[in-house]
Amino acid sequence: xxxxxxxxxxxxxxxxxxxxxxxxxxxxxxxxxxxxxxxxxxxxxxxxxxxxxxxxxxxxxxxxxx
Length: 66
Prior knowledge:
Elements: E1 9-14, E2 25-27, E3 30-31, E4 34-35, E5 40-42, E6 53-61
Antiparallel strand pairs: 1-6, 2-5, 3-4
């Protein structure tokens, strides 16, 4: 499989999704096997309200090639 020459992309928002049984949700970020700070967490997740949530700052994501 060919890989693009991308060195970084930015996350500016998160659209969390769970099915009806979901009541809280957390989106985590890992790089090189190490957990980075949480992207976003919603302790009161509501299936009926799914929307793009803008992050306070853009997060840089870097590829890890194996």
